[in-house]
Amino acid sequence: MRLLQLGLLLSLASGFAAIIIYITGVSNPSVYENYQLTDEDVEALISLRNSFQQCVSANGLGLKAVGGRDYCQITINFPSDTIPKWRDPKTGELEALSFDFNLCEAVATWEQVRNSTTILTKEFIDSLPNGWEEYAWQRINKGVLLNRCENKTLCMEKLSLVLPETPPYTPRQFGRCAVIGNSGDLLKTKFGKEIDGYDAVIRENGAPTENYTDYVGKKSTFRLLNRGSAKALDKVVELDEQRKEVLIVKTTIHDIMSKMIRELPIKNPVYLMLGASFGSAAKGTGLKALEFALSICESVDMYGFTVDPGYKEWTRYFSESRKGHTPLHGRAYYQMMECLGLIRIHSPMRADPNRVVKSVPSHHIISAARIASEKLLRRHSHLHIRPLSNFSLIKFRRKFHAPARATLVSQILPHTAYTTFHLLYPHAN
Ligand SMILES: *[C@@H]1O[C@H](CO)[C@@H](O)[C@H](O)[C@H]1NC(C)=O
Ligand SMILES: *[C@@H]1O[C@H](CO)[C@@H](O)[C@H](O)[C@H]1NC(C)=O
Ligand SMILES: *[C@@H]1O[C@H](CO)[C@@H](O)[C@H](O)[C@H]1NC(C)=O
Ligand SMILES: *[C@@H]1O[C@H](CO)[C@@H](O)[C@H](O)[C@H]1NC(C)=O
């Protein structure tokens, strides 16, 4: 069994080196009042868990969620006759059939994502204490040679092509969004027309649409890129005939990329992603793409990410050779997301476009559970987390076109009073 602790250093296991800026709200003592859970809080957590368990049974194609030792812990089990096929290349072990998750952390953390923009901006770096010295260089390939941006001009130059002043997108700016994974399962169902009907479509890495439009559609609004794909930016832009796709790089800016953007020239907007860490299930580009979608869309549907029962092997729809990783862990995690009302899963066995996710916890239950979860997590962080800096929250408030919504800086900070927020920089990928 694996314990998935959202926002903890397990992300190291996912191939990220997480250098962390702990942002905590010590400067605001009121944040620490009212840790005690009221009866309503406890009830909310119990309701969430009950409703979540029902939802997993009703939609999980055989998955079952079992409550753990406290209100927050949940274990998602696969039927015992499931045959795991994926082996951890490091340990040689087959994947487990049982995965632990923390519902409280998930509810609170994903809510933050929904209200944040996840594009790295100059404003964001400027607003961190020592943002340039402590953080900016990490988003530059070989940034370590820049001596913590000793020459800030040089650092800014390196980032300039991908660093907008302020967030280019706002929370819920787009209505219905589809995030398209690369699973070979996509070739089992002709989702193309359905996918093209979304307001925005988010794809990953080198996923083509040409020759596969019946299955994956042709609309493409955003593309999330890992390190490898980002270095082949010239090839990636050819995947979209319109050359309008917005490219979001989840790793570092590389001189090769800058050169291509300048000299080819690449006209597509290119940004770096700023994201939170969700632990080891958040491996790879898939969950990053969902995170990005949840930060800018009203609703998020996902295609081609998950394995249905009886999967043989997780391949890519456009190449035989590349294999996915941790398919069962991923499936359990995505099922959790669906049963927290975050996404809707589409797969060969869940192909009805009008499928309604049954027994999903109501908004009322989720928001009550979130309030309780935030109290719990705050209490936890008060005891265990030593803040690096003394942060004024007010300083970072800024207004958006849509006044109720706010940037990562202004919205995340008040709520990270209770938890660690991880700024990731990429490592090998
Ligand atoms: C997120 O935004 C919604 C709507 O604007 C608001 O009701 C909710 O309280 C916000 N949540 C957080 C964690 O800021
Ligand atoms: C800092 O970098 C800029 C841009 O490359 C360069 O023109 C300048 O000479 C550098 N300054 C120092 C003190 O090295
Ligand atoms: C589509 O198919 C044609 C003909 O087989 C091939 O030349 C082309 O490279 C394919 N495009 C992609 C993106 O795979
Ligand atoms: C926090 O910052 C303020 C203003 O910069 C300063 O006056 C105060 O002493 C700091 N508090 C701590 C605990 O460092």
Automatic annotation (TrEMBL):
Where is this protein found? Golgi apparatus membrane
UniProt superkingdom: Eukaryota
How is this protein positioned relative to the membrane? Single-pass type II membrane protein
The family database entries (CDD domains) matched by this protein are listed as: GT29
Q: Does the keyword Glycosyltransferase apply?
A: yes
Q: Which Pfam families does the record match to this protein?
A: Glyco_transf_29
Q: Which GO terms describe its biological process?
A: pollen germination; pollen tube growth
- What keywords is this UniProt entry annotated with? Glycoprotein, Glycosyltransferase, Golgi apparatus, Membrane, Signal-anchor, Transferase, Transmembrane, Transmembrane helix
Q: Which InterPro entries does the protein's record reference?
A: Glyco_trans_29 (IPR001675), GT29-like_sf (IPR038578)
Of the GO CC terms on this record, one is:
Golgi membrane
Q: Which GO terms describe its molecular function?
A: sialyltransferase activity
What is stated as this protein's family in its record?
A: Belongs to the glycosyltransferase 29 family.
Tell me the protein's name.
Sialyltransferase-like protein 2 isoform X1
